[in-house]
Amino acid sequence: MSVNVRKIVVAVEDIWHDGGPPLSEPVRKGYVACVIANPFAGRYEPDIQGFMDDLKPMGLECSKRLVAALGGDVGRIEAYGKGSLVGVNGEIEHGALWHVPGGYAMRELLGQALAIVPSSAKLGAMGTAIDIPIHHKDACYVRSHFDAITAFVADAPRPDELMFVLAMTTGGRPHARVGGLEASAISRWDGQR
């Protein structure tokens, strides 16, 4: 089955401070949203898993676009997340098709990326926003990198569309100070600590 892409949107934030002292270099945080036709909209299809393979090239393309928008250096990416927004003629399970193509694409591009990719999914009308959870790519217990980014595309998803989102950052929250495992103290390299 082919993937019918309508549009790809990339958004990046440069965060210089969050009410505290300005940083010497901003944290860059961004997302890429790919809006595609939902081939299963309007009906129940018992076997949808094969579509994940069709989505894999799109996952890699979206990952590359986001890394480029964040400066082009995969070594600077510290955290990630993903999500799906399903148009109202679809079902939440259609959003779950993004787990493998989105998550593994980021891991493949970033090289070392040991932590599970946090995810969110929901149904929504055109212009609905979705919060994409973010945490450290190598150890999900790095508390300074617990974050989110709100993604939306004004004219998506249409009722028969899917909007797949990837998110990455070059650092944690600008003024993280609530303790927990620090990124510099990752030692187990097990995706958790």
UniProtKB/TrEMBL annotation:
UniProt superkingdom: Bacteria
Record-linked InterPro entries: AA_synth_put (IPR009569), BB2672 (IPR035936)
Listed name of the protein: Amino acid synthesis family protein
